[in-house]
Amino acid sequence: MALERHCDRDDNAINLIAVELREGTLYFKDDLESDVFTKCEDSKDSVLRNQKHQVLMMTSEDTAVFETMTQVEIEGNAPQTKFVIQTYKESTPRGYAVAIMVRNKNETYILSCQGKALKFQKGTFPPCIDSDVSDLIFYQKKVKGHEKMQFESSLYQKCFLACEKESKSGHFKLVLKEVCQEEDGVTLFTVKNFLEKKDIKPL
Asked: Which Pfam families does the entry mention (predicted)?
């Protein structure tokens, strides 16, 4: 006859929950089960430059261009040259998720890539995006061997923010582009903190 054994519940027992460490943040299993992007506390005011060291500036709701600027001109064209990069915690670990916002004429705009066309739509960073992909979320990736960054769309895989020259105007414009490996130079950006004169300490 098999020996029956009854186990009583121990009220002092500790339930173990699976955890995962990503980007210096500890995620609990319950946080990883649903597909969602959650806004973090971290955000950074940034200046974005292309490979020619030109500075990105928003000019309209559907256009941002790269122009050669001095530090004084960068400050003078603010806030259209000041891009806020907001980090998001994602439920599925795929990269460093960010959204990008800029201010212009007392309005705030978030960069969107809906339909593979870039547009700055009015609004602020949403606290939560209930999806595993979004037109507002990009994966910021550090390029090996460079102090450069790439921004890949979470909605359209292998599509990156890129700098492209317009044939008519000759301006270098921010676009979303599906690129081959040999073309990846157009997707490389330098991301630096936005510094005003009061923040620059004399040597």
From this structure: IL1
